[in-house]
Amino acid sequence: MPIRIPDALPATEVLESENIFVMTEFRAMSQDIRPLKVVLLNLMPTKIATETQIMRKLSNTPLQIDVFLLQTASHQSKNVSREHLETFYRTFDQIKDQHYDGLIITGAPVETLDFEKVDYWPELCRIMEWSRTHVHSTFHICWGAQAGIYYHHGVRKHDLPRKMFGAFEHRLVKPTSPLVRGFDDRFMAPHSRHTEVRAGEIEANQNLELIAVSDEAGVYIAKSTDNRQFFVFGHPEYDNDTLKAEYDRDVKAGMDPDLPQHYYPGDDPSRAPLSTWRAHAQLLYTNWLNYYVYQTTPYDVEKAGLGDDDLGGGR
Questions:
Q1: How far apart are the C-alpha atoms of 110 and 255, rounded to whole Å?
Q2: Cα–Cα dist 64/3, whole Å
């Protein structure tokens, strides 16, 4: 089944060129089914690239999904045109009275700042609080995961001595979780961050459970025990060349960055990197959408987020 996105969104042409089934708004109007409504709060500076990466993952499932792009009103993005934002993005005040099946909160390049010093932190807190009553399930990524687990559960982030940068091997702590159904015992995932949350602090919280970790990169996946909040501390949506683009950018800026680990063949940055995480990344998004959104969200989307007692005809 397709993903439904605005006809003129730049991601449409890219995804169609990859033979991904994208349904335009015009065609979707003729279908008499209830698609899932998913909001993407895009905090990344490279908004168009992030839109495309995440929509690629959402599109490769048997579900029809309506994606709504959300930006913060309290922060002005410098890396995307105002026309693009005004055409395709909404602000929180425009959607706050609506209910949604899913919410995705991306990472952001602000992780070295205290949460409270991020200029849009008060607005993000409003959105995360709103998600408790208006969203059935929320998927947090990288800094968004650190922000979410701190806001909802008080788990703090900690500075790292060096940037965690590369593609790392992970293992399952809870292999019986439907979120990682179909995963191999060992799998790869990319990380790009200067801070971390610690496994012991998650395990000490009775409202959280640890799903996957890396001996090198630390915590990768955790979730709330009520299945309403999911925290992924890497970047499963990354393309195979995204880490390369970050590395090349920092080299050009004279920052003398570390080489991404386990990424370039033979640790040679002149050789093209290969994706070693694409299949598990897709499975992660597909499992979240299937087991924790589609299978349990109420058919009446206006009841989404109201709690199990109010779900009524949930599926």
A1: 17
A2: 5
Output the tens digit of pLDDT for each of the chain's 315 residues.
445 667 667 777 776 776 555 655 544 444 446 789 999 999 998 889 999 999 999 988 878 899 999 999 887 777 677 788 788 899 999 999 999 999 999 999 998 999 999 999 999 999 999 999 999 999 999 999 999 999 999 999 999 999 999 999 999 999 999 999 999 999 999 999 999 999 999 999 999 999 999 999 999 999 999 999 999 999 999 999 999 999 999 999 999 999 999 999 999 999 999 899 999 999 999 999 999 999 899 989 999 998 754 333 333
Q: How far apart are CA 300 and CA 134, in angstroms?
A: 12
The token pair at 22 is 């994208």
To the question of whether residue 157 is assigned a binding role by annotation, the answer is no
Q: Is 78 annotated as a binding residue?
A: no
Max Cα–Cα distance, the chain, nearest Å:
57
d(CA 47, CA 64): 23
The residue behind tokens 């991601």 is 11
Helix, strand, or coil (residue 138): strand
Q: Which of 99, 136, 170, 235 is catalytic?
A: 235
Which among 51, 140, 142, 170 is annotated as catalytic? 142
163 is in an annotated binding site: yes
Q: Of 277, 258, 269, which is closest to residue 160 (Cα–Cα)?
A: 258
Answer yes or no: 235 catalytic.
yes
Q: Is 302 a catalytic residue?
A: no
Q: Which domains does the chain have, with CATH numbers?
A: 34-240+279-297 (3.40.50.880)
CA distance 138 to 229: 5
Task: Name the residue type at position 137.
Answer: S
Residue 142 known to be catalytic: yes
Question: Considering Cα of 292, then 183, then 285, then 21, what sign does the dihedral take?
Answer: negative
